[in-house]
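Lay summary. Proteins are chains of building blocks that fold into shapes, and those shapes determine what they do. In this project we predict the shape from the chain. Here is one chain we studied, written as its sequence of building blocks.
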Amino acid sequence: METGNFYLFSPGERRHYNADGEFHCFWCHFVPDISVDWKNLSGNCFIYIPSEQESARLRNNMDEVLLLFGHHVQGWHVLTRHLIEEIILRGNMQNSISHIPPQILHACSILSDPTKNHYSFSEIAKKIGMSRSVFFRSFKKYIKTTPQRYREARMLKRAVDLLEVSTFSLNEISAMSGFSDQYYFSRRFKTQFGISPGEYRKQKM
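And here is the predicted shape, written in a compact code that computers can read:
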């Protein structure tokens, strides 16, 4: 094992490995919401080899995890989970990014930004240099869902995070997540999760 790489061990892994250099080890007592698609090193050990620049970025993630864990500030567990899952996601993308056109990655970035929710799908298609029909077909091909569902999923995920770690009102959370009005937000949230945003917040308190 070499310094600068990231290794992930599945639960129950009992093999022995030799490490050269300085390593930081973390025990993560949660099941990630995402699958691991890293290179399989041996048995249940997976390896992610980032660039030097990317490695520095991800080390900052882990430094923030340590800080949050040490102080247990409000919402620390939610942000910690997201920071670690970001590393897993970037490892997954490292393996698959060459198969996703840069135009589609750009579209994903726009669709994930709540400040750009006013962009229509036709406008997004124009920004990435595609016709609307080609954009929809290409997006479904590579991302495995429609642009509309992708955008809403990101909006709802942002709302969940805010409900868990903030004291903003439901109307404020609705706006910050990119929804046009609280009624529509509450309706879509309940359709997705089976309970209203207010009920969800009470369960997490």
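What the prediction tells us: The mean pLDDT is 81.
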